[in-house]
Structures are given as structure tokens and as C-alpha cells.
Amino acid sequence: MTTTTAVQQTRSVFLAGPFKGLVDANGVMNTEARTRFEALIERLEAEGYHVYNAHRRESLGAKFLTPDECTRLDYDEISASTVFIAFPGHPASPGTHIEIGWASALGKPIVLLLEDEADYAFLVRGLHTIADVTYLTISDTESLAAKVLNTVNRLAQHGMETGTGT
Prior knowledge:
Helix content: 40-55%
Number of strands: 5
Structural class: alpha/beta
Low-confidence stretches: 1-9
Largest sheet: 5 strands, parallel
Distance between the termini: 19 Å
Mean pLDDT: 90
Strand content: 5-15%
Number of helices: 7
């Protein structure tokens, strides 16, 4: 195994975002959101990242875990991640905001994906003053995936070089 392969296998991200509010009564997730999550996961995995994602883990809403199960898993997976990525939600997603807080407290590099012209909580907008946060504006899914990948590569590489990456 080459060094590059070993590093690629240790790189991981936790991809967070609104969930329960995007799933209808039949257990079907909103198509636009589903497409965004799937495109990001596919692009990151193609680059060699292990992607932790509750949406995929819980069959895009068809098989929700219990609160005790998902809380423990999300926290453990965020802890194990090299980089944390999130759509904070507009309106705000309470669960995602908790995960953003965990990632910040754990010292993870954070990438927040924000909608242009959307109103976000002051603590989301100001999080960069106390944590390593990169803000990206959401655009079309393909451009977004490329922007996220470039940002995550930069953050993961920096983490590996400084010994702060998991």
C-alpha cells in the first residue's frame, strides 16, 4: 500500500443537514435535497473519502433510528471525521445546529453550505470567530460538489500535515 492510498483511506467527512423536515409521511425525502446529498457523497467517495451521513445510514428517511441511536452514532461519527460539512438549513435545522456545535467543540474544520440571500442565525454567521469555518454559497449541484471537494481536500491536507486530521 502506498502512502497516498493510506492517507486517502483515513480521510473522512461527516455530511450533515436538515433531515426529518425533508421527509414526507411516506418516508420519501425531498428530491432536490436528496440529489444534493447523493451528489456530494458520490463526489467525495470518488475522491477517496469515507463519508458519514445520517441520511444514507437511515435510508433517506425510510428507516429512522431512535433518538438514542442516532445521537450516539452522529456524535461518534463526527468525532471520527477529518472534516465536518453541513447545510445549516433555512429555516434552521435544530439537529444540524447541534451537530455544528459538536464539530466546533471537537475542533473539527467545518464547511458550512449557505443559500445566497438566506437568513441564518448570528451564531452560524459568526462561528468563524471561534472555530475553523469555511462558508460556501450553494449553487447548482455540480458546481457545489466541485467547490466542496476543493475545500475539503485543502482542509484534510492541512489536517494531515499538522497532525490535527483524524
